[in-house]
Amino acid sequence: MVAKVVVIEDDKDILDILKYVLEEAGYEVITANDSSVLAYIDQLDPNIILIDEWLGADKGSYCCTTLKSTIALRHIPVVLMSAATNIESIAQSCGADAYIKKPFDIDQVTFIVGSLLGNVTHISA
């Protein structure tokens, strides 16, 4: 079974890069440019969610807190992404399983996703 990754990012270029990189790593990738996808996230049944902190009107940290407080969804790993200097503390406070600081290294992204899904195939240098 191929793991399903949902990527929520409002920057189209970053969204396209993440989709390409994760598909090349063997994942099924579903993308969204805003948090409206979370209204039906249970139907998508993702194995992991990557979400940007700044999504226009919404914050990824608020979305993460909501996901982690929903019994049926709290098991899904959530990775918060941001260029914010305090992304580590933001991620910790909202219950994110990991964070990715922008600009990110592609190997770091695949390593974190692989680690959270338990299928690391390589270790980034």
Describe the structure using short key phrases.
125 residues; alpha/beta; Rossmann fold; five-stranded parallel beta sheet; 7 strands
Q: How far from one another are the termini?
A: 28 Å
What shape does the CA trace take? Answer: globular
CATH architecture: 3-Layer(aba) Sandwich
Structural class: alpha/beta
Q: What portion of residues is helical?
A: 25-40%
Approximately what portion of the residues adopt beta-strand conformation?
15-25%
Number of strands: 7
Low-pLDDT runs: 121-125
Separate helix tally? 5
Radius of gyration: 13 Å
Give me the side-by-side strand order of the main sheet.
Answer: 2-1-3-6-7
Number of individual domains: 1
Pfam family, one: Response_reg
Domain Response regulatory: 4-117
Keywords: Phosphoprotein
Organism: Mucilaginibacter defluvii
In short:
The chain is α/β, with parallel strands linked by helices and 125 residues long.
